[in-house]
Write a structure and sequence with these properties.
By secondary structure, this protein is mainly α. The chain is built from 9 helices and no strands. Helix 2 runs antiparallel to helix 3 and helix 4 packs antiparallel against helix 5.
Length: 200
């Protein structure tokens, strides 16, 4: 990449940071609950800037991930505001597309893969989400978020409570510190209770 392109890219990223800081300040000054309308505008402006930078550097994984995160946030804001009436499909599909492009460049980025799997899980795309969690665990068997979210996804999306408990036991073998994760322990106890009730 030429020095000129690097300078342009750095300028755009600095501008994005400045816009983000302004948005955070505006949000902090809000006295009532709810997402201010300005947040969506700020996100849209950041998307435009980053997509412009991406045209000059289409294989920049960092830009692709940032765009994925922005589209995820826009979809989540819509869900938070509208609840079950929300239709975040466009934004979330765009987020998945950008995550996939980033992973095509850097397939071993477990954090991005887990973020995409989480999003697929929220979109009720169970088979795709589980496949991405498994891929993340193949890359890094000790990655706690990959394994924890895989456990929860098995239970939520497939009602595979036995499989979830088996994965929990496997998690404790590679990451024994997770025995201190009380919320996860409660979830797994709930899975055991469901199996017990189903056997009655």
């Amino acid at each position: 990449m030429s020095g000129k392109k690097v300078a342009v890219l750095l300028s755009l990223l600095c501008l994005c940071l400045a816009v983000s800081l302004i948005a955070c300040k505006q949000k902090a000054e809000q006295t009532s609950g709810g997402e201010p309308e300005g947040d969506l505008t700020q996100n849209s402006q950041q998307v435009q800037m980053l997509e412009g930078a991406l045209k000059d550097d289409p294989n920049n994984a960092s830009l692709l991930v940032q765009l994925g995160n922005l589209y995820y946030d826009m979809g989540k804001t819509e869900v938070d505001k509208k609840g079950q009436m929300a239709e975040p499909g466009y934004n979330w599909n765009k987020a998945v597309d950008y995550y996939k492009r980033a992973l095509a460049i850097n397939p071993s980025d477990v954090n991005v893969r887990v973020d995409m799997a989480n999003l697929l899980r929220f979109m009720q795309k169970g088979d795709e989400a589980l496949a991405e969690y498994r891929q993340a665990m193949n890359i890094d068997p000790k990655h706690p978020q990959a394994r924890i979210n895989y456990i929860l996804a098995l239970a939520e999306l497939k009602q595979d409570y036995k499989g979830a408990i088996k994965e929990y036991d496997a998690l404790l073998k590679v990451a024994p510190e997770q025995t201190a994760n009380e919320q996860l322990k409660q979830d797994v106890d709930g899975f055991r209770q469901k199996i017990k009730e189903a056997g009655k």
